[in-house]
Amino acid sequence: MKLSATPGIGWIDLAWAHHGFVDHFAIYASDSPFVQGELVEKTVYTRFRHANLGPRSRTFYYRVVTVDAAGNRSRPSPMLRASSLTSVTVSGQPVAVIGEFDRTSRGLALAPNGYQQYTARFPNGPDYPASDWPYLHPGPADKWAGSKPHSFRFRFTLPVVRDLVLAVWLIDTHATIPGVLSLSCNDTSFAEVPLERGATKGSTVGEGPSLRPSIVEVAVPASALRHGANMITFTKASGSWHAYDAVGVFTPA
Ligand SMILES: [Ca+2]
Questions:
Q1: How far is the CA of 169 from the centre of ligand 1 (A)?
Q2: What is the separation of C-alpha 34 from the centre of its chain, rounded to a whole number of angstroms?
Q3: CB 130 within 8 A of CB 152
Q4: Spatial distance between the Cα atoms of 55 and 52, rounded to a whole number of angstroms
Q5: Fewest C-beta in 10 Å: which of 80, 118, 132, 157?
Q6: 104 alpha carbon to ligand 1 midpoint, in Å?
Q7: What is the pLDDT of residue 185?
Q8: Ligand 1 centroid to residue 111 C-alpha, Å
């Protein structure tokens, strides 16, 4: 059995191939190559996301054991070493930030559960920093927000034009229709980000174990930026809502 890994910020995806009967796979992760480490998952699938690893790069050594219906365990697979990626919020320098990257919606407008006031409070959409930035960004699947696309505007001043990274940390998203976040800078589109499915609680709960956070960090090319005033537009043109933790533009290390 050969393991493969795909790293992200705060997670590592493992995948493997297996033929034949199996009751489940047992996945072990260790921070040392010399010990099997702890059981992190039992699954019937041939893939596993090791999640909630935090914003700093972490390295693990993985092995997978196959368990049949009688409880017989295979020898461990060959070991695979993999490292998660480091967030630009750790490695970079902030240019402009809304909120705190702390896995809660605290400090954002209407947080943690006031989304019904969104339309009355932001009739033309948020325009930061002239307006506050609400914790919940509705999508066209949300009747309570008019069943239409919604755009949020984030303005900031740039003293020197260079490549930046936009960090969008979410505390949660809708569980079945998370939708796509369309990002443009000064009217240049630079990313279409399919959001990860969440746990749905983030519309009414600002923090805690019932949420499923996710991290989006995308490059903003210097060609889309200007000296002085800039504006990044966040548009949700498909799916339902997502709930913010914090947003910021950073100079990468
Ligand atoms: Ca936060």
A1: 8
A2: 32
A3: no
A4: 9
A5: 157
A6: 4
A7: 98
A8: 10
Residue 19 has pLDDT above 90, yes or no: no
CA 106 to ligand 1 centroid distance, Å: 6
Cis bond upstream, residue 129 (ω within 30): yes
* pLDDT tops 90 at residue 211: yes
Tell me the CA–centroid distance for residue 227 and ligand 1, in Å. 28
* Rounded distance from Cα 3 to ligand 1 centre (Å): 35
Instruction: Give the dihedral sign, CA 189/193/194/198.
Output: negative
Q: How far is the CA of 42 from the centre of ligand 1 (A)?
A: 32
Give the chain's domains with CATH numbers: 3-86 (2.60.40.10), 89-251 (2.60.120.260)
β-strand partners of 151: 235
* Two tokens, residue 32: 């040392």
Cα 190 to middle of ligand 1, angstroms = 24
Tokens of 111: 């947080």
